[in-house]
Each structure stands twice: as structure tokens, then as C-alpha cells.
Specification:
Layout (H helix, E strand, L loop, with lengths): L2 H14 L3 E8 L3 H11 L4 H9 L5 H19 L5 H4 L1 E19 L5 E17 L1
Antiparallel strand pairs: 1-3, 2-3
Helix pairs in contact: 3-4
Length: 130
């Protein structure tokens, strides 16, 4: 490995030390519905984001709240039990990707059938010091 590549790898490793990542795979909610909730917390302080998710009536907010708590816990473990309230953590990135799609058949009039696509998604959340 060349010197430039090694230096770049070491810099990337240093920047990733303060990051904490949590990922939720195959969540049985459509990606569009999940993105509506994810957009509410992107760039927010983690405690404000938790409050927004806790009191949001959408079903997707429950899954995102659990995921955010998991990311906070990952950050605590990575930083040897440092207190997240003093660290001023922020939801740096949150993105929703589509996952597998279950294809089902629903009966329709005159002997026909319509295809139903039951969508699911993958959510990734990254928290960092703000």
C-alpha cells in the first residue's frame, strides 16, 4: 500500500472513531412512509429526535426510535461509557433504502387478479458529535 493511500486510510479511521452506526434491515414498512418520519429527525440533536419520534403518531416512528436508541448505545460502548448528554450528539445521517418486496395476489372483479406489492426497507442511522 502506498503512503498516500495509507495516510488516507488512517484519516478515515480517525474520523470514524466518533461515529456510531445502527442499521435496521427488512423493516415491513414501505420506504416512502419511513422516509417521511426519517426526514423529521435528520440533523437534529438526539434527545430532540427521540422526543419527536416518541410523540409522532406514525407507526414507522416506533421502529426509528428503537434504532436511534440502539445507535446511542453503540456510541456509548465505542466511547467507553462516556455520557451522551455531555457529548452533544446529532443525527448526522439517516437514509432509507428499499428492501425485498413480497408479491401477493388479490382477487378482482370478473375473475381477474391484481398484484399487491408488500414493500419493506432498510434504515441506516449515523450519529456524531455536533
Amino acid at each position: 500500500m502506498g503512503a498516500r493511500k495509507r495516510n488516507k486510510a488512517e484519516n478515515n479511521k480517525e474520523t470514524k472513531k466518533s461515529l456510531a452506526i445502527a442499521k435496521l434491515n427488512n423493516c415491513p414498512t414501505s420506504p416512502r412512509k419511513m422516509r417521511l418520519v426519517a426526514d423529521l429527525v435528520r440533523g437534529e440533536n438526539i434527545y430532540k429526535a427521540l422526543n419527536v419520534l416518541r410523540f409522532n403518531p406514525k407507526h414507522a416512528s416506533r421502529n426509528l426510535e428503537k434504532l436511534l436508541l440502539s445507535a446511542i448505545n453503540n456510541w456509548e460502548q465505542k466511547n467507553d461509557g462516556e455520557d451522551p448528554t455531555e457529548a452533544n450528539l446529532v443525527v448526522k445521517e439517516i437514509f432509507v433504502d428499499s428492501a425485498r418486496m413480497l408479491k401477493r395476489i388479490q382477487a378482482a372483479p370478473q375473475g381477474r387478479a391484481h398484484r399487491i406489492r408488500k414493500r419493506s426497507n432498510h434504515v441506516t442511522i449515523v450519529i456524531d458529535k455536533g
